[in-house]
Amino acid sequence: MKQNINKITIAVALVFTSMLSCNKKLDVLDKNNPTTESYFKTASELQNGVNSVYSILRSAELVGREWFFTHDMRGGECASGGSQLEAPRAELLKQPSPAPANAVMSNVWSGCYQMINRANLVLGKAPAITDNIALRDRTVGEAKFLRGWAYFELVSQWGDVPLYTETVTSASGFRGKSPAADIYAFIIKDLNEAALALPATYSSSDNGRATSGAANALLGRVLMQKGDYAAAKTALLKVYGKYSLAANYSWNFDGDTKDDNNITVATGHEFNAESIFEVVFVDKGDNNFNWGYNGEGSTSPLSTVRNQEYGITWGNVIPSDRYLNEFENNDPRYKLSIYEEGDNILTGVPSGPLKLTASMMNIATSIKGGVTLKRFFRKYNIYEYVNSGFHPGGINQRVIRYADVLLMLAECEAEVGTPALAAGYINEVRSRPGVAMPPVTAATKNDALKAVMHERSVELGAEEVSSIDNLRWRKKGYFPSLIPERVPGQVDLFPIPAIETSTNPLIK
Question: How does residue 33 score in pLDDT terms, banded at 50, 70 and 90?
Fold first, then answer.
């Protein structure tokens, strides 16, 4: 390593000497290849910097692909679609803990730290920007929200992790692990400051950016995970009443979709009244996906393969029996969340409808109420309009929605000793348009908690919150005292990935 550094030093010195000998007229800025020193001089350029953080969030390392696997494979709501489920994903699903070399887990770790490093760059450059103070301050709020989101992913899944507060500028700029308590304190500070800096809404041209509501909702989630339910309730009440439940439950999971003839057949209901923060995806109609795992630039593919992974051609993931049997018999959300044999697809195009048969579905069977059928997730799928072997989708991923906030408030009320208020929040969700389930009552804390656990499962199933819930409830001892353990034998925290321990000398 030392020999390589010496070689680099000599090379840099030679280049610098040759540059000095050049005509001074050549000492001009290459506008086509800006550096971090020559760029970030205006608020608009700073905004481009935060856009690059959103790009990593959308990339295949994170929300475009691997992120939903790290949560859904460990939440108890999913099962293997068959032998086609790839080994790293099957390991997350079936083993108590993945190996340090697990590629899915490693990609999420890497993606989170890329987000953090880019956010740190934006935040480091912001104080020198003076041309548009309002845009600068809003951009700072976005960067802090995104950095807070990334650190929460890391601390909730790994515990003690390295804390980087400034841009890494050298190959030796490693950090050792910081205690989880310090990471939580840093996230809470970021999100509180983001909530003050961010607007409540944007114009439609800026949809997808973080808002003050998103910052407070995420802050509530973080505080709950930390165990501070009173503070979480305070944060969540800042969101309460600012949003409303969508007029149709399905509007939370559909989106802009092109059919197999590249014709836009659905404009969806993205950025609806229930959506608090969603990650933007676009179906360009070219059946392409960013396999480079970088999410860079508007000219790159902006799609997601979630509908492929949870569909019937790849068929990697299906709903678990436990999740299917969580639904009450008359709950309309079952059919709005699940397709099964005998259901119709392609109901939104002239070529449909088409009835699903077992032979059409490259997936394993599942059992609900003693009935064995082939079933798959309807959420985030495109089978209303497309039945294709390969068609990456353009449905935006809802990361936080208002129903989640209501159910988090319900849990907070249960924990602080007001179960009747908890039932009230639960019943707001149960009475939502198109669902209209009968109300629940809760006389005790345990009554309220069990009602919350049930409602979060059926309302938010396969929405990447169950794994976080399980960690919180397991720590509180609610498995099996209140409900059976959802993922028996699971080890709570991931091991630090081998890609980190093999390069960072401060982590063993």
Answer: low
* pLDDT at position 263: 82
Residues 288 and 429 sit within 8 Å (Cβ to Cβ): no
Is 61:114 a contact under the CB 8 Å cutoff? Answer: yes
* Continuous H helices in 295-365: 306-309, 321-324, 333-337
In this predicted structure, what is the pLDDT of residue 264? 80
Give me the pLDDT at residue 278, please.
Answer: 97
Residues 330, 332: Cα–Cα separation, whole Å: 6
Backbone angles phi, psi at 175, to 5 degrees: -125, 145
Q: Tokens standing for 456?
A: 């979060």
Q: Is the pLDDT of residue 31 over 90?
A: no
> From the centroid of its chain, how far is CA 78?
17
pLDDT at 132 exceeding the cut of 60 = yes
- The C-alpha atoms of residue 403 and residue 246 are separated, in whole angstroms, by 9
Largest CA distance in the chain: 83
Residue 340 β-bridge partners = 375
pLDDT, tens only, 476-495: 999 999 999 999 999 999 99
**pTM (predicted TM-score):** 0.92
- For 452, residues 6+ apart whose C-beta sits below 8 A from its C-beta are 407, 410, 411, 414, 422, 426
Decide if pLDDT at 349 tops 50.
yes
Q: Which two tokens stand for residue 40?
A: 């970030």
**How many C-beta neighbours within 10 Å does residue 267 have?**
10
d(CA 199, CA 183): 25
Write the CA distances from 328 to 138, 255, 408, 427, integer angstroms.
Answer: 44, 27, 21, 15
Strand partners, 319: 78
Question: Residue 440: left if φ>0, alpha if ψ -120 to 50, beta else—which one?
Answer: beta
Question: CA-based angle 79:85:89, to the nearest 5?
Answer: 80
CB 257 within 8 A of CB 393: yes
- What does the angle CA 119 – CA 145 – CA 123 come to, to the nearest 5 degrees? 30
Give residue 3's pLDDT band: very low, low, confident or very high (50, 70, 90): very low
Domains of the chain: 41-247 (1.25.40.390), 250-291+299-399 (no CATH), 400-481 (no CATH)
Q: By the 8 A CB rule, do 393 and 382 touch?
A: yes
Q: Produce one character per residue of 68-95: b if its CB has 16 or more CB atoms within 10 Å, e if not.
A: bbbbbbbbbbbbbbeeebeebbebbbee
Question: CB–CB of 331/93 below 8 Å?
Answer: no
Report phi then psi at 121, rounded to 5: -65, -45
Instruction: Give the model confidence (pLDDT) of 248-295 as tens digits.
Output: 999 999 887 778 787 888 777 899 999 999 999 999 889 999 998 887
Q: What is the mean pLDDT of residues 233-240?
A: 98
How far apart are the C-alpha atoms of 489 and 238, rounded to whole Å?
A: 37
